[in-house]
Each structure stands twice: as C-alpha cells, then as structure tokens.
Amino acid sequence: MWALLAAPGAFWLVALFAVPFYAIAAVAFGYTDPVFNAPVPEWDPRYWDFTAFSEILTRSVSGDLRPVFLRTLLYVALALGLCVAIGYPVAYYVARHAGRRRALLLGLILAPWWVNYLTRMLAWLNLLQDDGYVNDLLLLTRLVDEPVRWLSGNPVTVVLALVYGYVPFFIVPLFATLDRIDPLLLEAARDLGCSGRRAFWHVTLPLSRPGLLTASAITALPMFGDYYTNTLVSGSPTTTMIANQIEFYLLGGTRKELGASLVLLLSALLMALMVYYLISSRRAEEVVS
Fold it and tell me: Which listed CATH number (3.30.70.100, 3.40.50.620, 1.10.3720.10, 3.30.930.10) goes with 66-253?
C-alpha cells in the first residue's frame, strides 16, 4: 500500500528532477554543432565528452572562475550569518514571548511570500537609488557626507538583498523547532539553579540545533543558485556570483556546455553541503534524544 501511495511522488521526482538533470548532463558532456553553433546533447553515456567539464573544473580551481566561487561562498556565508543574527531572536521571541500576538507576528513574517520576489526587489531599487529615501535619511542624520552608491557594484547591497529575500525561510522552520521545546525543561533548569541566560545556552540552544541546521540549509542552498538578486541590485562584474556565470553561459553565451558543466559542478558542491547537513542533523537528533 505504501509503495502505491509513494508512486505519484516518485513519478513527480523522476519527471521533474531526474530527467531534467540528466538532460543537463547530456548537454554538458555533448558537443557543439559547428554549423549552427548550438549544443547537441549526447544521451548515450558511452559517448560522453568530458572536455568542457574538465575546462570548467580547471578554471574553478585555479583559473578565472576561482574568485567567483570564493565570492559566492563569502556572500552566502555573510548572508547566512546575518540571517542567524536576525532570525534567531525573532523566532525565539515569537515562540516564547509573543503570547496572543503570535498569529499576527507569524502573519507579518509570512507576508513577504504573498508578494512576488522581483516586485519586492524592485521596491528596494527605488529606496537605494542615489536620491532615494535611504540616502536621504543617511544625509539627514549626517552619517555620510555624500550619497552612497548602493546600486553600483556594492557587495554590501548584494548581501543585504540576499538576507532580505531569504530570512523568512530561516525564521519559519526555526520557530517550529523552538515552539516544540517543552517549557518544563526550562523550568527544571531554573529549579536546578540556572539563570535565564544559562538555561538558554545549556537547554534551549542545544535543543534548537536541529532546527537551526534545517533553517540554515533551507536558506543557504537557494542562495547559491540565486542570480536575479545580484543582477537587480548590482549588475557589476565585481559582484558576480556563480549563478550569474551559469546564466551567462546558458542564456547569453554560445558555449552552453560550459554553463551545463557549471550546473553540475555547483550541484556537486551543494550535494556535499547536504551530506554534511544530514550527518550533522542526525548527530544533533541523537544528542537530543
């Protein structure tokens, strides 16, 4: 019975994940038509050509793509760190201290999902222009002497835009974990002489680690494949991320096999991160249990 119930989901995964991923591999390991300069996928693995993938791997390790990979890792790490700094206190407050305002606060946290992502980013473009409200406020408070060029290849803008776009993905799963922590455990810690701060560090934080790992994975993984945020708020080669390179090769360049190879390489990196996440989550669950 369970196999029958799982069949539609399995078919969905095969049709919309496995088949497209195999098509990407066929393009990456195929060849380019010399007449029309178009990629010709090779569906038979026996005839795959790994030249393009080897080129991308070499350029990513020691060539021109190496700074792009390092920049992507740095931007995602900084954005994830800010999501933790912003999202954990918010999730903790809503789970523990919101009271009757919990539903309202959760609605406000989820409200950005009701608006198209591009629409929200376009609104930020108006705020961050040289004569926008953000610069007006900074000049009024004399924090700066001249308008900050937020939209001219400023890496700070890219990181803040990633945080703004993905912090709700961080808060919601973390809130679910914090909300399930039994308050009796905190009361027991206080009965044993722990202050509120020590109870947080020795009880709440360890018990929330699985949710923290889940929230980090849900937030960080789509950041690696995000190309439109960088394009909208920067569009400069100095802030190019790996997803922007994939977009360039697949949509704007002539060597689409390089873009497909980049997809495979990025997928391998994300797979390694997912393996680390699964192992860490399993260990965290064993510690909690």
Answer: 1.10.3720.10
